[in-house]
Each structure stands twice: as C-alpha cells, then as structure tokens.
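Question (not urgent): is this output format expected?
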Amino acid sequence: MAHIDDPETQRANLTFIKASMKVPLLSRETEFELACRWREQNDTRALHDLVGAYTRLVVSTAGRFRNYGLPMGDLVQEGNVGLMQAAARFEPARDVRFSTYAAWWIRSAMQDYVLRNWSIVRTGTTAAHKSLFFNLRRLRARIEDVSGRPFGDEGRRKIAQELRVDLHDVVTMERRLSGSDQSLNAPIGEGGDDDWQDFLADVRPNPEEVVIGLRDARTRSKWLAEALSELSPRERTIIAERRLRDEGATLEELGRELGVSKERVRQLEHRALQKLRQSMARHVDRPQDLLIDA
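Got this back:
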C-alpha cells in the first residue's frame, strides 16, 4: 500500500531533515545536565535542547523504514513521538546515554506505525508475527545468497530457529507479505461485470429467522416472568440482583442487605434457580436444554 507525500510536504520534510543534521550532538555531561533539569525542575528549555539534539536519530531511523512504502514525514512524526516518550521516561541516574535509551523508543514507535498502516488488514498482532514482519525478507535474502538456491522449507526452518518462532508463523507471514490489499469492488476479470464482493456469503439471519427469534424471545420472557412470580420476595430479590443485572451483586453485599450470611444467600439462590428450572421445564420437551445454572 504505497503512500506518496505531496510536493509541499516533501519540501517541509527536507527542510526539517537539513535543520536536524545541523544541531550538534551532546556530550555525556551536557546530556546528563539537561535530563536532570527536565526531570527535577520541569525545565522545558532543557527538554527542547535534549530532544532537539537527537532529531537526527529520528531521521536516520526513519530512513531504515522507507521500504515499507509509507511517507517519510509520517515516519519522522511517529519517531518524534517516540523521542518525546523517551524524554518523559528517561532516568539520568541509571547511567545510560539518552541517545541509547531514545533509540529504542523511536524504533518502537515507527514499527508500530508501520504495522498499523502497511495494510488495511491488521499485521503483526503477536510478538512472533512482529519479529517476522521486520526480519523475514532480510533473512530470506541472506539464506538465498548463501545457499544459491530458491527459498524453500529448509530456509523457513532456519528462520524459525533463528527468530525462535513456530514454522507455521513463518509460512503465514510469508504468504501475508507476498500478497497485497485488494478492493472488494474490483472486477473479477477484465471486462467482467461482477465484483469480488458479489460472491461474499451473507451470514446474517434471514427475515424468517429474525421473526422466529423475536417470537421465541417473547415466549421465553413470558415463561421467565411466570417462573419469577412463583418465587418468594427474598428469592426474587436475590435472582434480580445476582442474575438479571450486568454487574451482579456479590453474596456478601446481598447478605448485608437481607440481614443474613453470604452462605445463606448462596443457599437461597441455589433453591431459587431450582424452582425456576422446574417452572420453565413445564413448557419444553427437553428440560436439559434450559440454560439455567442451578
């Protein structure tokens, strides 16, 4: 899925890149001082100087992701978000260079952006798939160069071992990367009148099934109302609070409300459910089909 920047955006990106490369890098001492001022004194000027010195790191990282067909400007913006996240979380006392720490956040932000936008279908939903997405092509090319043979099952097994993933994941990602997004509105053949979407099965219930479902729901509601009317007031309260609410009350809460122990509430609930099952069983041929947990 290719994305192309318009000329004005390209010029703005080029200006930003040139400006980033002119900012001098920081020494370890200066970096530490700026990080402390930002973290301890909330000095925004120190933050600006700290991140400004490493926008070139964002630009260089973005260059490594250009082959995924996404705009350079968008990659840089995502990298800047990662840079700001690194500045917000950086702890100078750990004796780690900010540039080293920020590089991980910048790369992670760009990887997430690529995975979200490379295809309209979500890609890299697991750690294994994410690792394969960014390494499969490189490893495949290396294996083909070394062996001098077309990529095959042996190569897939080597990749699975190197990345510590299942062979099935390698096969799945290989197929995913070899394909491209295709519109369902695209014609099936040249000059044809049928689109791909014309052959998608409609799994929605038909009108007859909808009517039957509504009728059955009304019938079950009627049976349930009759069954509830046969319970004592305390039993109806327990069933209503425990079973007929999205977030049911706990046994302890009902015990306090009714003035009994939670074990007594459990016993009353069990008895009420048995009564409901017996009442509704009179209306069906197969009582075992009733979904009432007694």
